[in-house]
Each structure stands twice: as C-alpha cells, then as structure tokens.
Amino acid sequence: MKYIILGLGSFGKSLATRLTELGHETIGVDNNMQKVEQLKDRITHTVCMDCTDKSAVSSLPLRDADSVIVAIGENEGSSLLATALLKQLGVKKIIGRVVSDLQKTVLEAMDIEEYILPEEESAERLAMRLDNSGIVDSFKVSDKYSIIETKVPARYIGKTLAEADLTNQYNVIVLTVLTLSKGSENGLARIFKRASGIATPNTVMRENEVLVLFGELKDIEKLMH
What we know:
The protein is an alpha/beta fold. The protein is about 30% helix and about 30% strand. The chain is built from 9 helices and 11 strands. It has helices at about 10-20, 35-40, 55-60, 75-90, 100-110, 125-130, 160-165, 165-170, 215-225; strands at about 1-5, 25-30, 45-50, 65-70, 95, 115, 135-140, 145-150, 175-185, 190-195, 210-215. A 6-stranded parallel sheet has the order 3-2-1-4-5-6, with helices on both faces. Strand 2 (about 25-30), helix 2 and strand 3 form a beta-alpha-beta unit. It is elongated and about 60 Å long. This is Ktr system potassium uptake protein A. It comes from Dyadobacter linearis. InterPro entries: NAD(P)-bd_dom_sf (IPR036291), RCK_C_sf (IPR036721), RCK_N (IPR003148), Trk_Ktr_HKT_K-transport (IPR050721).
C-alpha cells in the first residue's frame, strides 16, 4: 500500500519509518530539508515542500495513495490548512493528527472522520480560556488569526447567521456550530461536543450552543462583548 505523510517531526518520522519497515511504499514530506535528508535512506521517498502550498501538494501522487496522514504537530494552523487543502484536492482518505479538542471539532466539520490525538492541552490555550470566560477553546492559525470556540452571545440567540451578518459586522467567519451534551466516559462525567457541519447563512444560533469562529482575536472579542 502507498502512504503519504505530511510532517516529519518525531511522530511523522516514526510512522514513516515503521510503515516502510512493514513493506509499504511511504512518501515523507516536510518543509525542513534537514528532516528530509535524515530520512531519505530510511523510507521509500522523501520530498521537501511546503505542505500548505496547493501547487506543491498537487504534485504529489495523491490519487494513488491509500491514505494521506497529516502528522504536523508543532503548528496547529499549518496542520489544519494542509488538511483542508487535501480535502479540496479530493483525497479519498485523510487521517489527521489532532492536538486539541478544537482542532478535532474543525476536522469533524470538514468530515475528517479518522484522526489521532497524541498530545494534551497546551498551556497557551488554557491561559486564553482562563483569561476570557466566554472562550471555550482556541488555537492560533497564524500570528494574526485564531480559531475560537465561544458560547453564542445572548443577543444572537434565535437568529440565523445571515441575520446576524457577523462577517460584515465584525470581520469574523463562523466555521460551524457545536451542540453540547452531558455524558460519561470511563466512568467520568464529561461534556461531549457535536459539530453541525459547515455553517451556512441559514444556520440558526441557539441557546447553550457554541460557535467556532475564525478571525483576529480583537475582532472576535468585540463580537463577544
């Protein structure tokens, strides 16, 4: 079988090496030439490229691959953008690496059903949640933009996204809406989140739901307050 692995950090490197040892054709991709050089004699093929560059990624044998694994872990934004790019290019099976609940939610909204969660919550995300009680979860896509999980502000309950017009009002995009439910896992009580799919102008914002927003943090804070 043929696998393409985007990201050759410790996780991606171990996965690529092991798949090759098991007899699979493995293509490892990373934008760090040093990582690529270290693996060139240990796996089938190595490629140095930007995994968020559409023209570059399009040159990979995506249609021939049984699975494309996004193993980027050090940059959640790059991981998400690479996954979205693979989805846009029609890759038949994508496996995403998830390092936060919010990243998992966004992948579910993109109909990425298979993923791995090797890391725990980061200090930065926890600090942002503690700093602002309205924020449920968050991560940076870049120095400028973030994806934020926040409760539906009271003034928008019952309105559609078209009626609220958040993009024009605050320069913020709603990616999806989450429904929360209580349950238990391994004997412990917890809150489960279910994404409603990609948000549309007709999506209605309801009480006790959570919005997943994309934009600059200052604009998102204006919307929240």
